[in-house]
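Why this split exists: single-chain examples teach little about how molecules sit against one another. For that reason, every record in the complexes split bundles all components of an assembly together and asks for one structure covering all of them. Below is a record exactly as it appears in the raw files.
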Amino acid sequence: MSAVPFRRLRRSLKSKVDALPLPTPFSIQALCELVAAERRRPIRLMPMARGVEVCGLWVALDETDLIFYEQTTTSHHQQHIILHELSHLLCNHYHSGAPEPDQWRYLLPDLDQGMVRRVLGRTAYTEIEEQEAELLASLIQQRARRLAPLQVAAETNALTGRIKTLLDWSGSGGPERPS
Amino acid sequence: MLLYYGGEEVWMFNGSTEAARTLATKLDHLFHTVRPRDGGEYSHEEVAAALRDSGGPTISATYIWQLRKGLRDNPTKRHLEALAGFFGVPPAYFFDQAAAERIDAELELLNALRDTSVRQIALRASGLSPKSLNAITEMVERVRELEGLPDATKGA
């Protein structure tokens, strides 16, 4: 996090949030659809069944972005997890340029990175990008609350319903693909 | 057990068939898991040649095969280090159970990622336990299902 001072980072992310077309009423699903449409890459929300140390995960495939999220937690927390992963997309944490040498070290620290590249030839994430995504997720939530202060309570219930719908996606042949 | 024999450190697995089996199993696992991107397993000849070319200890292809099958159980420390180096794992993989468990979890994830179109993975945790790595591996297995790929755990 030393590369960019926190205040400057916050300012730059704030302008990103202000430019974001937040759906009204706000829903995480509608926001995912907006972002997917803008990026022209479908986003799939994938509930995770078990509670482990990992509560959210973004997996970028060639054609699709998958957001895995912990489902055995409050709906507010689920929303924050999904927003965090969505923020990776919004921050453009996917670079199509040449892979950096040690990018899988984060996930596979004991393995020789040369060997990992021979087997995969692909990339993984850094601490700075994690913090950037976390901050942006919080800012989006703040703005969503400001936009619709009265709606929030009602939406928490509505969100639970929507999350349940999301969960059902996987039960019926996989989640829907927002286009 | 580490012994000194003729001035050279020798890993003695012959005192325990269990330990010999573990060495053979681990070596076999490395052959299965660490394969070049577009190819099958490395051959014993390829491994022997690579070690020779990199100035490592001389190990014949036959001897590597015997270690892998559990027919020989007396590799030197240098042999094990060279083999670990070739497959890109720390030498501790062969004699430290806790390290082996963690490394196996990483190898399993690496193997699950093979052939998928996964370009990147971002997650909030760091310094992952074997349990968390297994959870990520399970998610990557779901990606394999989405992409219609065969189960990565069912052999090459």
